[in-house]
Amino acid sequence: MTIWSISIQNLRSKPFYTFLSVFSLALSIALLLGIQQVEASFKYQMENNLGDIDLVIGAKGSPLQLVLASVLHMDNPTGNIPYEDAKKVGKNPMIKSAVPISYGDNYKGYRIVGTTKGFAPLYNAALEEGRAVKKSMEVVLGHTVAKQLQLKIGDTFLSSHGLVDNDIDVHSEKLKVVGIYKPTQKIIDRLIITNLESIWDVHHTEGEHEHGDEQEGGSIEHSGNAYEGKEITSLLISFRNPSAFLTLPRKINEQTNMQAALPKYELDRLYEYMGVGVKTISCIAYIILVISCMTIFISLYKMVKEHAFDLALLRTYGASNVQLIRMVGYEGCIMGLLAFLLGILLSKTGLSLMFKMVETEYKQNMLHELPLMEFLQIGALVFIMILAAIVLAIHPIIKMNISTILSHEN
Hints:
The protein is an alpha+beta fold. 54% of the residues lie in helices and 17% in strands. It has 14 helices and 12 strands. Helix 1 (3-12) crosses helix 11 (321-362) and helix 10 crosses helix 14. The chain is elongated and about 105 Å long. It starts with a helix and ends with a helix.
């Protein structure tokens, strides 16, 4: 019988204790991996979906709600603002581009966003097939929308009022698919893009307007009073220079009936609030990790003490101390490896279920794969602690007095 098979047999001889040690360690690993992946996913969503948006202007209310609704499209808007007022802000020389967006409808839960030609460049989105919107009631689909709903160029559909899928308040005007964007891994993948005129037409906004979207590079300049009395949800702004951060938001908040919110600042604040929970769960996970490794140490140490006679007998038949130490080491490593694999499985399963609920609710896949380095760091930590447990557990083997053990047993 080999040293490896003896180690396996020892683990099988005490199944409950082995399972308890492996499961408790796997739980701590799952918590650590899970909380790090949640943190990484949140950071990725913040950094990846901000695009070139430096400021969001919308109706008065919660600035965080304004950012979540207009940038991440995960909340209800704070209200509407007059388009004429938004155009005046867009003329400020400190602003490089000002992209209006208007929404309030959906199709199968995916938001329909009325905007201008300046919206897609914010996310570096390019057409995969078809063309851009040229007139009212035409739409370009985000890649995920087209894939999930199996829509193609030329298809038509009816939108529903509100941001939640429903069959009650359905508009009568058909929207026609004229283009599909390439995948970007950003929020635009899950949006249905049209022009502002489509949103106004669907909601029967009073007053005449020019069909067609002639805006270039995010500018919101128009001739005449074609858009007088119209409203939009918010204005996405990119600054021309950093000095605008210091003056423009305060000026808008104090001198207008609109609200200015800095997306990066608001999302950083949200992350700080989340940080308390992240640290708490991480501390709990580390405590469970230490307890789990102590349990493995006790299991190995108990095995060495209880099988002292058998180990001494193996020594008399020619087994070396190194071979006996390897036997204990194999047991510890097997439990550590099983726990690590089970921890990854538990983490993946739990996060998939959790983020599946988020995707069902918000039509947005927020799960981002954890970098390999994070896995390696946790794996290295577990290995070090298992190694420490093995080193402590083999102390009786190193100090073993064969004659004393055999004579005492006899």
